[in-house]
Every structure is written in structure tokens, then in C-alpha cells.
Amino acid sequence: MRYPARVVLTEVGPRDGLQNESREIPLAQKIALVDALSATGLTRVEAASFVHPKAIPQMANAAEVMAGIERRPGVTYIGLVPNEVGARNAIAADVDEIAVVVSASESHNKANVNRTIAESLEAIAGVAALAAAADKPWTGYVSTAFGCPYEGAVDAGRVLDLAREMHSTGAYAVALGDTIGVAHPRQAFEVVSRFFAEVPGPELRLHFHDTRGMALANVVAAMEAGAAEFDGSIGGLGGCPYAPGASGNVATEDLAAMLAAMGIETGVDLEAVVAVAWLVEETVGRALEGRFKRAVQGGRNSQ
Amino acid sequence: MRYPARVVLTEVGPRDGLQNESREIPLAQKIALVDALSATGLTRVEAASFVHPKAIPQMANAAEVMAGIERRPGVTYIGLVPNEVGARNAIAADVDEIAVVVSASESHNKANVNRTIAESLEAIAGVAALAAAADKPWTGYVSTAFGCPYEGAVDAGRVLDLAREMHSTGAYAVALGDTIGVAHPRQAFEVVSRFFAEVPGPELRLHFHDTRGMALANVVAAMEAGAAEFDGSIGGLGGCPYAPGASGNVATEDLAAMLAAMGIETGVDLEAVVAVAWLVEETVGRALEGRFKRAVQGGRNSQ
Question: Does residue B303 register a pLDDT over 70?
């Protein structure tokens, strides 16, 4: 087996994670979380979402989050934006990088942002123009890239078309999201292999949810196909609105621990990231599904 | 990637799972669990442990379990035995197959059964003679094959020596156990590859714990190296005494669901196995860590 020598992790907990929490997280705690994460050796942190607070109240105060955090040198702070208004706000808040999202399936895109895919691509083109003018790099996410809660199977060709289109619009990277955690290792290997063969140019990032416990297996399969960039969410923060009670993103600390065990460098300090995972459990007031922190808890009490 | 067309699963929940529960499970519920499991399409069920009840009270009534269950045609019922007394009792109870265990690390073997490895191998030779006389096939487990809670790293050469030795004593199959859930995919691939290259003869089975969430990733890596037989524990039943609060064996339903998604046959009815996973949560009175059942719970309530 050939694995990469080094993997780049993107922490999405403060955005993709917290936006799925029912509890409103106070501004100071959001800032503390981002700062704690950026002190662990993680070099990429999705810190905020510049959506309208009416749409996702959990993500209010995005500009205040960006203004309040410590900008640690070497760390890229990313803001998700849904449209040109969001892009202007994100640029005004001086994010280092912009993320945009389109679903690979029409019905999920409609449910998620009440637009057709074509309308989303149009909005993304508007964001791209603003990003270019402000000299901000941006990543294009393809959601439901491995399966859709409404439509089931998703055609990989369609996913690669969207990747190509966003790259041609200016995305330096494309992230394929397994939004509902149905990707399996054979599929991960095949889609990643096709991506590198058929979509020359953009960096590839993978965003796996751990709903069915397959996220780490998918990471391994994706690495075997050449991938070396993955999203994680501290503690396993996040959730899947289509499978209540199921877990969300793969836990950053589980991902970092597996890669460390395999001798793959991430630059992440495992002890530090585990400490933040415990902190985030307190912040959201519920047990999270990441496993590594309990496996190494040592003296910590457990039931 | 080449994966096997078909994988054989061995269900170890009634034994390796229940023996780690603090709650004593009544005989009738043990029997009901084994019968429910054998109705799911699983063809191998470790049903009981013929250890002395003073050593592991949870495993009392092994003979009564074997006498009470429905012997479904095509299903192999396995009994774990620690010594010749256990082997005689297991043979008297008419198990279809015997399992024996030795650790790859001296200190774990001492802690587990208060014997040296050499003493365990001597006991296994005695069991082997009884098994041969009774025409019972047996599997030799190597515990701590991927890491030891006391000694840390375990030499793979030592693991393969034990495998060879048990095969020469009569084991038709060897099972390598990741007792504390520290195996990682690179290691799983390497150990399995070496096994097939250096230990000709016995069937190979892998027994992964999911303590750090890496079990399914290890299954995939092991399949890539040629493995096609895996243990699972319904619901993720079981635990790891060295990491309280951490999960135990990989959940059978998670394993079966991943293999099904990958187009690999197991013969297991996923709906049926998920129903048993819910049942076993009620039996043990606590939430278990298997993920697939919650991901597909549909109408079930969740918090």
C-alpha cells in the first residue's frame, strides 16, 4: 500500500459542526474554540458561516467571530458563504479563504438552499468574481457527492462535472462531501481515482461523515487513490439532519490519531487536539462520538 | 482495489461481548440472543465460554446455553475453552467448534489467564488432543496481536510464530485479535500480508476492536491483503477493560453493512441483524456503539 507522507487536515467543527447544534453557542465560546483549535497544529480552520442569521441562527456573529479570534500565523481561516452578500461580508471580515457549496443532487440542493443547482452555480460565479477581486482563494464543495438522502445513488460523472465547472470558475480546490455518511471504501477509491484522472487542476479535499462508522475506512481508501487532504470536525461535532441521533463529521482527533499511527504527518499535536475535543463536549453540553479521546483518557473518570 | 467476493463473519457477541458486561445476563436471554443471531444469516456464532464460573461469572451456564439453543442447520456454534477441563465440557455440550486463546505478549497472557505463553501453549496442546479425539475443529486466537496494553508494540514475527505453532498442533484456523483496538490500517495490511506469505496452511480470521474507530478501516486494509474472514460483535457489544468507556468489538451490523455497500457477500440479512442489535441494547441495558442501526433507524425516536 502506498500512502501519502503528509496529509493536510481542515477543521470544520466551528462551522459545519456548530451549525448542527440545537444549543446556541455564545460568541466568546465560538472564539475560544477557534483559538484553541488553531493552537493544536491544525493549519486550516473553517471559522464561520456568512449566511443570513435568519437562515441559520447558530451562525450569527460570523464577523464578530473573525474579529475576535487570534490570527495565528500559518493558519488559514475559512468562511463559508452562500451568495454575494455573504462573500462581501466574509471579505470585509478578512477571511483567508472562502468556501462555497453546491449539491450534486437537485432535491438536496433545493432542500438545503432553496435553489436549483444551476442557480447555485450562478451564485458561485458571483462569489468567484468578488473573491478574485479581493484576491481570496476559494474552495468549491460538492455536497451529497456520494449519495443523497432524497435521490439515493448519485452519479459520479455529475460530481466531476460540478468539480470541473467550479475549477473553471476559479476554485483552486474542490471538496467532495459525503453529507449523509453513506460513502463506502470501494466508492471512495473509485471516485477519487476518477477525480485525479478526469479533473486535472484543482486540489482535492474529502469531507466524510461518520454516520455509519465508515469515515476512517473511506479516508484510507481515498489515500490509496492519491488523496491527501481531509476535513475533520473536533470531537465528531456536527450531525446529520436526515439521521437523527447519528454522528456527524469524522472526529478530527480520530483522524489525526489514525494518520499518526500510520506514520503519516499532519503537524497536529494529538494531546492538544484531544484536550480541545473534551472542551467542545462541555461547550455543546453533550457527549460526542469521537472515539480516540475516550480510548486514551487514562485517569479520567468514565461511567 | 481487489476485494474478496465473499466474506465469512463470525459473531462473538454472546461470548466475547457478554463476558465484558457487568450485568449478569439470565440464561433465557443468552439463549434468545444466540437463536436470534443464528436466524440472521450469520453462519458462525461463538455461543459460550467453558471457563470456570469462578473466573468469569458472566459465562456460567455454558452447557445450559448449548443445550437450550436451537441448532440451526448450516450454523457453526463455537465454544471458547481455556484448558482440558473446559474442552471436555465443551465437547460434552457438543459444540461444533472450539476456540482457544493465547496472547502474543507475556504480560497480557499472565494478566489474562495467569500463565506464561509456554504454559498456555501446553494447555492448548492438551485441548488439541481432546478436540482431535472428538473430531472437533478448533481455531487458535492470538490476542494482543497488534499491540499490548502493558508492553506496547508487539513483534509481528512472534505473532506468526504462535500462529504456526497452533496450526502445527492442529488448528485449522488462526484468528489474530486486536484486543485493545490499536491496530491501524498500514499494520493490518502488513501483518496479513506476512501471514499469507509466511504461515501457509491455516485459514486466517481477524478480530478487530473498534476502540479508536479504526476497525472498519482495518477490515478494508486486511481485505486488500487477502483476508476474507472477520469477527464481529452484535451492536458493538463488549468492551476493553484497559480503556473504560471505550467501545469493544466492531459491531457486526456495521461490518455487514459496509461489506454489503461494497458489493461483498456475507449472507447476512441487514434488517434482521439490526433488529438483533436493538434487542441486545435492551438486554444489556445500555446504549452500544454500533452506528449503522442509528443511521437507518427511520421512524425510531431518538434524543
Answer: no
Residues of chain A contacting residue B295, judged by C-beta atoms under 8 Å apart: 181, 211-212, 243, 246
Q: Is the dihedral of CA A147, A151, A154, A158 positive or negative?
A: negative
Q: What is the pLDDT of residues B145-176, one digit of tens each?
A: 999 989 999 999 999 999 999 999 999 999 99
Q: Which residues of B touch A (CB under 8 A)?
A: 1, 3, 181-182, 184-187, 189, 210-214, 216-217, 219-221, 224, 243-247, 251, 254, 257-258, 261-263, 289-292, 294-297, 302-303
Three-class SS string for chain B?
A: CCCCCECEEEECHHHHHHHHCCCCCCHHHHHHHHHHHHCCCCCEEEEEECCCCCCCHHHCCHHHHHHHCCCCCCCEEEEECCCHHHHHHHHHCCCCEEEEEEECCHHHHHHHHCCCHHHHHHHHHHHHHHHHHCCCCEEEEEECCCCECCCECCCHHHHHHHHHHHHHHCCCEEEEEECCCCCCHHHHHHHHHHHHHHCCCCEEEEEEECCCCCHHHHHHHHHHCCCCEEEEEHHHCCCCCCCCCCCCECEHHHHHHHHHHCCCECCCCHHHHHHHHHHHHHHHCCCCCCCHHHHCCCCCCCC
Domain limits, chain B = 8-295
User: Do residues B278 and B26 lie in contact, with contact meaning Cβ atoms separated by under 8 Å?
Assistant: no
Residue range A8-295 forms a domain whose CATH class is alpha beta
Q: Answer yes or no: do A295 and B212 touch at CB < 8 A.
A: yes
- Note the pLDDT tens digit of each residue in B18-27: 887 777 889 9
Nearest CA in chain A to B22: A303
Please report residues of A whose CB lies closer than 8 A to that of B251: 213
For the question of residue A240 being annotated catalytic, the response is yes
pLDDT in tens, B112-141: 889 999 999 999 999 999 999 999 999 999
> C-alpha distances in angstroms, B98 versus B128, B137, B141?
9, 6, 11
- Tell which wins on pLDDT, B302 or A287: A287
pLDDT at position B298: 56
Q: What is the pLDDT of residues A185-241, one digit of tens each?
A: 999 999 999 999 999 999 999 999 999 999 999 999 999 999 999 999 999 998 755
Marked catalytic residue, from A182, A240, A250, A277: A240
Chain A positions contacting chain B at CB under 8 Å are 1, 3, 181-182, 184-187, 189, 210-214, 216-217, 219-221, 224, 243-247, 251, 254, 257-258, 261-263, 289-292, 294-297, 302-303
Task: Using the predicted structure, report yes or no on whether residue A278 has a pLDDT greater than 70.
Answer: yes
A82-129 pLDDT tens trace: 999 999 999 999 999 999 999 999 999 998 889 999 999 999 999 999
